[in-house]
Amino acid sequence: MADDLLKFVSINQQMPTKRTAGDRKADFDEIYDEFDTEGAKEQASRCSQCGVPFCHIHCPLGNNIPDWLRLTAEGRLEDAYEMASSTNNMPEICGRICPQDRLCEGNCVIEKDFDSVTIGSVEKYIADTAWENGWIKPITPAAERKESIGIIGAGPAGLAAAEELRKDGFQVHIYDRHDRAGGLLVYGIPGFKLEKDVVGRRTGRLEQSGITFHLDYEIGREATLSELREKHDALLIATGVYRARGLKAPGVGLGNIREALDYLTASNKVGFGDSVPEYESGALNAEGKNVVVIGGGDTAMDCVRTAVRQGAKSVKCLYRRDRANMPGSVREVQNAEEEGVEFEWLCGPEAFLGGENVEAVRAYRMRLGAPDATGRQAPEPVPDSTFNIDCDLAILALGFEPEDLPALFGSPELRVTRWGTVTVDHASMMTNLPGVFAAGDIVRGASLVVWAIRDGCDAAENIKSYLTAKQQDAA
Ligand code: FAD
Ligand code: SF4
Ligand code: SF4
To answer: For residue 377, what pLDDT is reported?
Structure first.
């Protein structure tokens, strides 16, 4: 074993410096500073180079983590980037926003009583260094292929597929209904988790690689799915899931009760310097308001922390289970608490009170009862436990479902599941329509960026095989 490794005994886990809560509440910049070279080397050197690396097994991309940690510890950063980027199209993005505590780092088997290796931060450091040093270049395929592929959706699934297809010389066109590429990377996830120029340099590189982006182009409005099929040799549907799960409660139709994604998209657009009338009018701006966010996932965490940064008077998060059972990442809850968010665990909204606009949420306490069909303890209301919380802006963050794609695309023949996700053959990722593939959240349901990247890469492989077989048949 090289001298550069196995240092978990002598070197403690150290994340890059986290800005103070007071400092980070003042802007939408990321909350962690970058490792310096020595810090990254030291942290990488804590890896014990396991024979069976559970970190790698639990990374959805199967990243060769011990290998690029070793290269980092040895100071061979360009090689480390080569290795990291061979399995991940966006290492600096995953390094920032993967829930590492549930994936690679949560499964790092460094000896008991020692903290895991800071895998995500090292991955981010390697890739950011590669960008800074100009090691990341536009793609130049060895040969051009004439077949053209249309990708619907410029989120991580669509972008990953586009990159893999372009590497093989295919003519790639991405269609997105938004005015910027990136999907939820730009309009969902806030800048304090992922600064937008980090996404912009990835999409910019794809453009420089010869991929054509058709923005402000909604399939179903500008063209039907059938029209798009006629233009391309294969299609990939990577449209994500956007229909907000609703809530049934008296008063839910009052003014200033908003969906999480409307709120986050407006905030992200303001961050880009766009004019957003609903923000300017105050309807999607938390400044000076008592804000109540309902939900316990990562979207809810992003909303509460956005409200803090917009200068809300108070920010409360209502979640019907307890802290141990919330779906959001432990790290994000901790960040929110440090920034002044108050959590009401085991608490649900009974009604929204007010005149034209919401003025209060009548909430009730809950307790965890018997396990439900999924094995999780089902929350049940505690009798006579209601209380009111002042509220001028309520944000519903209860999860997302697919839109009605067959109707939206003008393609009733496209087969979907009873949940509205697109049905694919699991081996080929092809839908029931020949040459039309699907990947990402629109197949899995709301998931993670790293899974979208994985699916996009797998779909690209399947599209290549499909087109190659078609070409051979024609020959
Ligand atoms: P998306 O990213 O949703 O991209 C789909 C794209 O398709 C969009 O750009 C959309 O405009 C476009 N589109 C849709 N319909 C059409 C149409 N008809 N025509 C043209 N274009 C269309 N995951 C993490 O791993 N870490 C996190 O910290 C994290 N935070 C999140 C925070 C929020 C607020 C949300 C909502 C999600 C978060 N996620 C996070 C989940 C993650 O963002 C998604 O799993 C991932 O973006 C899915 O990728 P995708 O490419 O399938 O879809
Ligand atoms: Fe960990 Fe995500 Fe990187 Fe995989 S892609 S090593 S899960 S941070
Ligand atoms: Fe290194 Fe931890 Fe992975 Fe083992 S599980 S190879 S110690 S990062």
So the answer is: 83
Q: Taking residues 104-131, report their average pLDDT.
A: 88
In this prediction, residue 186 carries a pLDDT of: 98
CA nearest ligand 3 atom 1, residue: 47
Structural domain that includes position 83: 7-132
Please give the distance of CA 230 from its chain centroid, rounded to a whole number: 32
List pLDDT tens digits, range 122-157.
Answer: 999 999 999 999 999 999 999 999 999 999 999 999
- Span from the CA of 241 to the centroid of ligand 1 (angstroms): 7
Are 270 and 377 within one domain? yes
Q: Are residues 340 and 279 in the same domain?
A: yes
Does 140 map to a domain? no
Residue ID of nearest Cα to ligand 1 atom 28: 97
Q: How far is the CA of 178 from the centre of ligand 1 (A)?
A: 12
Model confidence at 7: pLDDT above 70: no
Q: Is the confidence at residue 276, as pLDDT, over 80?
A: yes
Closest CA to 307 of 192, 153, 462: 192
Within this chain, do residues 219 and 265 fall inside the same structural domain, yes or no?
Answer: no
Triad 258, 263, 269: Cα angle to 5°: 150
Q: What is the DSSP letter of 302?
A: H
260 shares a domain with 389: yes
Any domain includes 413: yes
Query: Which numbered atom of ligand 2 lies nearest the CA of 56?
Result: 6
Q: Is 305 close to ligand 1, i.e. is its CB under 6 Å away?
A: no
- 167/291 same-domain check: no
Total domains present in the chain: 3
- Which residue has the CA at smallest separation from atom 5 of ligand 2? 94
Q: How far is the CA of 67 from the centre of ligand 1 (A)?
A: 30
Supply the DSSP string of 434-469, one letter for each residue: TTEEE-THHHH-S--HHHHHHHHHHHHHHHHHHHHH
Which residue CA neighbors atom 4 of ligand 3 most closely? 50
The answer on 370 and 250 residing in a single domain is yes
Question: What are the distances in angstroms from CA 91 to CA 50, 80, 160, 248, 273?
Answer: 22, 11, 12, 40, 27
Q: Tell the residue number behind the tokens 């090289």, with chain if given.
A: 2
CATH of the domain at 162: 3.50.50.60
The percentage of residues in the chain with a pLDDT greater than 70, rounded to a whole number, is 97
* 120 Cα: distance to centroid of ligand 1 (angstroms): 21
pLDDT in tens, 14-51: 788 899 999 999 999 999 988 888 888 988 999 999 99
Round to whole Å and give the CA distance between 430 and 464.
12
Domain check: are 382 and 254 in the same one? yes
Predicted TM-score (pTM) of the model is 0.95
Nearest-atom index, ligand 2, CA of 98: 2
Q: Which atom of ligand 3 is nearest to the CA of 116?
A: 2
